[in-house]
Amino acid sequence: ERILSYWRKRKRKAPPFIGSGVSPHRSAELMRAWNAGEIELLLAQSGAIAHGANLQFGGNDIAWFGVTNNLEHYLQFNKRLHRIGVQGAVRIHHLLIRNTVEEPMLAGLSRKDGSQTAFLDALRDYRAGYRVSGGLTE
Questions:
Q1: pLDDT by residue (tens digit) across 53-78?
Q2: How would you classify the pairing of strands 91-95 and 61-65?
């Protein structure tokens, strides 16, 4: 809402938005237009677009305005651009205010990701026939 109000205050048309209150039909229409290169800037809520969206053909930059505490939404949202077929490097930017709760929240996402990765690695090793405690073959 804060981003959209920025545009309204300047009496300019806001960029298209996918999120709360936007119909699935409109969301699909916007995703098609994004991938066709018809949209330069697309606003989206992470939970609304984290799963099932292929957006790799419309751009290379994601800018987070604030931080989510939901690791799944964060990782999945970023993967909407970072997919096979994307042209060039995908860049993820974080627009944060220093000395606020946003900095530790972003660090917390990194810790969650590390813990999740360690758990999944241990599970994979266990399923492959290793004992988790010592990494020795049974």
A1: 888 888 888 888 888 888 888 888 88
A2: parallel
Q: What is the pTM of this model?
A: 0.70
Three-class SS of the chain: CHHHHHHHHCCCCCCCEECCCCCHHHHHHHHHHHHCCCCCCCEECHHHHCCCCCCCCCCCEEEEECCCCCHHHHHHHHCCCCCCCCCCCCEEEEECCCCCCHHHHHHHHHHHHHHHHHHHHHHHHHHCCECCCCCCEC
Beta bridge partners of 63: 93
User: Count of CB atoms within 10 A of residue 110's CB?
Assistant: 11
Q: Where do we find the tokens 């599970």? A: 123
